Known about the structure:
The chain has no helices and 20 strands. The chain is mostly beta strands.
Amino acid sequence: MAAVASCGLPGPALAGPTGTVRGTVRFEGTPPERTPVRRDTDPYCNRGEVLSDDVVVTHGKLKDVLVRVKNGSLPAPAALPAPAQIDQQACAYTPRVLGLVVGQQLLVRNSDGTFHNVRGNVGGKLVWNRPAIAGDPALTLDSGARAGDVLEIGCDVHPWMHAYAVVQDHTAFAVTGADGAFELSGLPAGSYTIEAWHPTLGTRTTRVKLGPGAKATATARLSYQGGERR
Length: 230
Ligand SMILES: [Cu+2]
């Protein structure tokens, strides 16, 4: 994944110059230990040691955080973006956390030489459960989810596989890579609530004020502490 993972979509269709909110999501204190994942139920997957990716901290920076402008703050995109993509690769989802706009489809590939099933739940309610046979074309799936929902994706064959698609009503979102960095561009001047969401560590918020002009930038400071749970 790129150092700064952005949604890569045009910003909202607003007149006038727009600026950027950026920052780095930090993890303060001692992160939980990443223990080896037991994958011996499928010989295809059980190649080399893989550590748990529940909480991935590198030099105090937190990976897999969806950072967004709070829902309800910006217009919806004029047109729906192309489907967001997830690959099943080495018996894991890539990416593990991603953002969707309301109505945006999800395209799920299987690059593995083994069978997966793709099960999606929102709030504990099943949305779909589809087979992903090795070599089959990608699945294109509708989430039906609303802004603020989290579509939880899992595989019953390989219970360690988890991905999370977080739904927004606008395109100002990004997901942190290993360096914890994010950038939300295309924002008109104003005050914003910036929300961070992590699958196991929960939500943090901060406020920023973005000035006018195309070169306007603001820094959002977001951090989690060791031992905290949502
Ligand atoms: Cu699987």
